Amino acid sequence: MATNLQPFGFSTMAEQDPSGSSIGFLPVNQTNSPPASKNRRAYLSCERCRKRKSRCEPLQGETRCRRCVADNQVCEFRATRSTKRKASPVERDVRRRREDEPGPRGSDAVGFESFATENTPQTRHTIDMNLESPVTTAALDARSRLVSTHIHNTADALDLLTFAATGSQGYNPSDTPAHESQISSAMPSNVYDPSAEARRIASAWSGFVLIRKGVISQQEVIEYLDFFFERLWPLKPVIPSYYRNKTSYTQLAVEEPLLLTCLVTIASRYFPLSGSHGEIRSERIHWQVWKFLQRFLQSVMWGSTTTRSLGAISSMILLIDWHVKAINNPMDFTEGDGEAINFVDDSMKGFREQGDSLTGQRRYGMTSLMEKLNIVSPAYRSNKMSWILLSNAIALAHEGCCFENESHTPSTSSSESEAIRQEWSRLVCVFIYLADESLATRLGLEPLLPEKSRQVVKDRFSTTFADSLSDSTLWEGYLELAVETRKGREFLHSLKKTGASLSSLNLVPTLEHLRRSLSRWKRQYHHHYDSNTFLSACLDMEFHYITMYCFAPAAQALPSSSRIAASALSEFSDQAAQASYSLLAVIVDVLEPGKLIAYLPVRCWLFIVAASLHLLKATIAKEQHISLSNPNIHLLRSVIDAIRQGSPDDSHMAIRFSKFLGIMLQASLPPPRSAVPEGAQQGPEINGVASQGETVLEGPYASMFGDVGIWDIPVNLDVVSDPFTWWDSFSGRSGFARFP
Known about the structure:
There is one protein chain. By secondary structure, the chain is mainly α. Among the domains are: about 1-35, no CATH class; about 90-100 and about 110-175, no CATH class; about 400-500; about 530-675 and about 685-705, no CATH class. Helix content is about 55%, strand content about 0%. A hairpin with a 2-residue loop joins strand 1 and strand 2 (about 690). Helix 6 packs antiparallel against helix 7 (about 155-170). It is elongated and about 120 Å long. GO terms for molecular function: DNA-binding transcription factor activity, RNA polymerase II-specific; zinc ion binding. It comes from Fusarium duplospermum. One of its GO terms (biological process) is aromatic amino acid family catabolic process. This is Zn(2)-C6 fungal-type domain-containing protein.
């Protein structure tokens, strides 16, 4: 009996001849082996069988295999393997960067420069043709990488470690099912097939998390996107105009799920769906989608790779200007008991006894206490949330190298996707710059964006970012106005740092310089309006606010100024009052007739509040007896009515703003003559102007500020006995008073 030794490379074909002697074992897969003993697999199979991944069976007397004979096809064999080692993702990225760099390249241009030069396709092809051992090749590659790679920091060390690990494994992310599904959904096929295209689109939409979870339908997502790109996108075009086309909506669902979730969250607050019960459906969708958006944003902070994209940065920039409804309820942001509105920290008691300096911890305590008064607490929460969103957006932009110098402009041979990516990167950098300057001005803080990045925006992006926007002139004006805003912010910061009284400072030269700069901007951009009335109105409001912001110190320095400076300061004070009047006139004359107030960004609502208080303050300071027929008072009442009716919903801050501005207006008006006690004296006048802060409110309106219930202050909140004195000690009234 013959023993089966086939696993050891021998056949068990033991036959006997007529004399009875046995024939020896026949070798398998050798050159002298019979055809039946040859396993035709891998590169020993013909090309057709190899591509079909089927067994190649030979036929006796035929040079072709069984399948090629049956199909009457040519049977071709290849002497060597055609496979080669796949490049790792880091190698492909390095090679792509090298190909994009024009001119000669030095050894220090890229961290992995020398390694990339040793792995050209020609070198790998030579190695494969010589059929070197895979183990030897991997060892040589690892040794070469370790010796030639420049390690400047821990990130370079991690990259080198990844190089060594993926070089031998040949990892390719394009082999993963997720990547294949994205390519099949986003990229068009060479041969257009309507039914296949429809299936790809349907598959892409069904994979979107909100649709997959049953929160929203595809048609509802399209409705929200149509509204966003028509109404809100012109005010903040941080997304390339390429995605305004309905045919590109599918790419947002596949490539930018976080951004699409953010757009649905914002649009569902301002836009009711068509059909029956559209407002109720939008309300339900808004709260459900907010939970998904919250988790997405948290995943960005915890280092998720799937949500680190330009779309994530754009989402944070958009949320700075349009908030979700949850901003009105602190429990929707954090679930700790410490965020309850009736919680009082014992450490706050120490702040009441200290009024000498405004340290960082005292500033936090002051803000927390003002927020716990629950008058405009969502506005305080909005400031903190916007500041954190901006810091995260800046961090992601630097991580994604958005502010790095572009080595070349997209050529005709560049892909369309690369051109869109570069445009998106420019838009992100510019709008981060604008948001940073605006928030720093509003909050009285230093900007978060480094000076080097700010200079990149002004030097390179300022002349190109608006080319792809329809309202290019307006956006160029916006960027130039941010430059003037910085001058005013630095001027007011310098006043606050000195700590000296405004009467001892010569403000006129600096105010004159600011007036010339703003006048130059006004001549160049103020009347160059395009067809977008809404964007033009917002730009007007921004300009008037900056004018009022820069010239406000003149009104505060006027009462104690000398006779020489009084005339110039009075002129600047009048300009600030006129700027506040012009800002509010935009609301009544432009936005209210067009029913556009509801869609205003958050910063514009704060402009309205600041301008209203400044105009009211300037009116009271100049006139002792104010009547309802006063044009300033009439405008203020119209604005209060307009923002109340223009509120997008009952929970919007516009409701509180209109309520408390109305209370301030009523309290500031003089009581009827019959209610004034005989012998009551008005406040003293300085230089013909009524002294601010000396007016004593009497009559039926005097009790408005003493009624706790009308301000919604929690009854269990132990407020200081004299909150106005406490506030003055924190706001630095002994020197420069913050405005607004």
